[in-house]
Task: structure prediction
Amino acid sequence: MDHFLYKDGALCAEDVPISEIAASVGTPFYVYSTATLTRHFRLFDDALSWGPHLVCYAMKAASNQAILKTLAEAGAGMDVVSEGEYLRAKAAGVSGDKIVFSGVGKTAAEIRTALTGGIRQFNVESEPEMHVLSAVATELGVEAPITIRVNPDVDAKTHAKIATGKSENKFGIPIARARDVYAMAASLPGLKVVGIDVHIGSQLTDLEPFELAYQKVAELTEVLRADGHDIIRLDLGGGLGIPYARSNEAPPTPTDYGALIQRTVGHLGCEIEIEPGRLIAGNAGLLVSSVIYVKSGEGRDFLILDAAMNDLIRPAMYEAWHDIVPVVEPKAGAEQTQYDIVGPVCESGDTFAKERMMPRVASGDLVAFRTAGAYGAVMSSEYNTRPLIPEVLVHEDQFAVIRARPTFDEIINRDTIPSWL
Result:
């Protein structure tokens, strides 16, 4: 569910017409709904109400500080994967004891920043990382709380580029080696083992892979406790999928997911952490674009937009589907036309959809990409010297620009020409 609906023939973000935002900030732009963000967070929070838990938003999905502050005020923790994300979360007012630091390549500098500023835990991915973490914590005279990310070798049945739980993936340590690695952690100074971490991938639309992975985590918990480790937290990752294309088959709900967690690991008495990102932010955002031209080609029509692959890379990178709809509501029974929907970047890959059926639109009309709130703005670039596009947050009948579009002068003046030129 989202809060982007047609009202009196116009697509609105909550109570704000999209056309009103477009007139104010220009196109293209991203727009997010506060009501959708908070609703989706609360679905996860409620799904785990049967026991102690923390829902840590995976901020790599959409990391604008206004989004982070909105979710933090609703009670969310944050899952970060870089020093920049850590500092962004802190700048948004998130306390260190609600920040989990994930990622396979944490540097000593990043670790030092988090230990100095406060951290809930590090999700450790390898033995070399563990030794660096131990050295930095010892140098600072502090104790670093850790979980160790285990790789359960479970096929998440998702896109190859977003699968993380198979043996060939770079993430975590093989679960078969977990006892040895936990023993090493217990022997190193400056480390405090607090739990187990697992994350098998993104955009999962079936609960079975989660169940297989969590059963393995439950078994490992018992084994590690028997070895003398105090396992008090289980970080179960994120990855629950959302519907991008119209389909009769809906992904599992957070309620279903919470019940699965209770069934598989609820008996262990651990605090549960989960790290959803896509399901919280995805349906909470639109990408809004203007039609520049409708071009007739050989056997097809092209809808050329002012948004491009640098603004939304998912279709080019993942062959991802987004529903694309007119901002002015089509009349009932309106004629459908087939378009290839493309951007202006000089790449054939700058294609959002091929042979897409939608109502006729014309130059100057506005269209909206649904389910664009996750992995949209955060993965954008200034390729072709195209400015990063604005981000807008809506709250009921109000909207605010939460990231402004830079001017060309601002972009160009970042460059420095050396003295010999």
Summary: The first helix runs from residue 18 to 25. The longest strand covers residues 285-296. The chain has a mean pLDDT of 93. The domain at 4-31+282-412 is CATH 2.40.37.10 (Lyase, Ornithine Decarboxylase; Chain A, domain 1).
